[in-house]
Amino acid sequence: MKTYINVATLPPSSATPSARAEAEAIIGKCVHCGFCLATCPTYQLEQNELDSPRGRIYLIKSMLEGGPTSTQTQHYLDRCLTCRACETTCPSGVEYGRLIDIGRHVSEHRATRRPAQRVSRLFLRRLLLNRRLFTLLLTFARLARPFMPSALQRKIPVRWPSAWPTPRHTRQMLVLDGCVQPALAPSINAAAARVLDAVGITLVRVPKVRCCGALSQHLSAVDEAAAFARHNIDAWWPLLETGVEAIVMTASGCGVHVSEYGHLLRDDPLYAAKAARVSALTRDLSQVVAAEMPALRQALAAAPSSGLRTAFHSPCTLQHGQRLRGVVEPLLSAAGFELSAVAEPHLCCGSAGTYSILQPRYSARLRRRKIAALTLAAPNVIATANIGCLTQLQSGTALPVRHWIELLAERLPPIEPSSPSNIRTPRGDEQPAERRVLKQPNAATARD
Length: 448
Ligand code: SF4
Ligand code: SF4
Hints:
By secondary structure, the chain is α/β, with parallel strands linked by helices. It has helices at 17-29, 41-46, 53-64, 71-78, 85-89, 96-110, 115-128, 131-144, 150-153, 181-184, 186-198, 214-218, 222-240, 252-258, 261-264, 272-281, 285-290, 293-299, 316-321, 328-334, 355-358, 360-374, 387-394, 404-409, 443-446, and strands at residues 172-175, 202-205, 247-249, 282-284, 309-312, 338-339, 381-384, 401-403, 423-424, 430-431. Helix 1 (17-29) crosses helix 6 (96-110), helix 3 (53-64) packs across helix 6 and helix 4 (71-78) runs antiparallel to helix 6 (96-110). The radius of gyration is 22 Å and the shape is globular.
């Protein structure tokens, strides 16, 4: 039996009319079958209906119909990872990810958070969205790393070489830098630039672009998320008009959010059309590289077998959010990596944006379970496709955890030692940036 809610009873301040109509349509699709319980990480941990997708749908429905919104309601909505495993399991096509966003937005207006929660959520937004401050704190942490216990050391990512190739191709694509990735792992975008360069594409950075807005969206700062989206669209737009082919996402968490810009700004008369175009041009890096497979094989032809057994962790934002499954694995195989079997590949690693900070107990339980699943076949290295998953997994294992594109880039011949980064302003001027000597990465020497 389907579920219906009466939108006429919704409190007017709780959501926009289109959000209310959308919530009604989504909730109406749920037939309460409970299939989603089998793949929901929090239900698997707690076996509690309120920690399941179906239970949360009930909570949101009740809240939207004007029922009480307590801190308990907020508690169960907060505990959801937004992993969207329930979405890929659901036979009725319930778009749970969109519904939880609406539910959280409404609960934020109707329930009062404890002061400590309000402060920590605001602090996270201020810290993680401020690139300079975050980079500064990370620099201090790296300096102090040798004096830390090993468990704490693993929370600070290793710095790998990050030289960019010289721009040389007429085919061009933009890349999103993101908020924390440039400080945590600048080697990821550099590796993406190297691999795309090898297949005939120049990757271009646009320095004015900021955070994609996903972090704000997940912390229910919806207006801030929309402001980031508008800002980035303005920064990309002049370059899109010059004919760049795509906007490449090297973090699947950013990719799933930017691909939703069109939906997020659909009611904005000034930005709706541009946002839809940006979403249409957004590609995960794996899609771009997979489309160039013949050129990739040619570029890798001289590479000897890596001899490394690799366990690939597919982030939820890749496999559930973007429905991109089985795209990265053939690329790793083509580069000479032996893929090892992974149990429970659909389950979240517990990273989920700021979840690992705000829900540390649940996050740690999920990380333990994920590391056990990934290491069952004794791999030499773990690969993933999102900076959040990478740092989460690395903090729980002594095995190296890398972005898959770094592993691919390391199979290519070394590039010229002095290569400028590809940075373009909206006018199209190219600016030389830092110059670094690229050494072949080596786990023993690349650590700080
Ligand atoms: S699987 Fe889909 S239809 Fe079934 S209970 Fe879960 S959300 Fe509802
Ligand atoms: S998004 Fe993930 S954690 Fe949240 S209800 Fe769905 S499966 Fe469970």
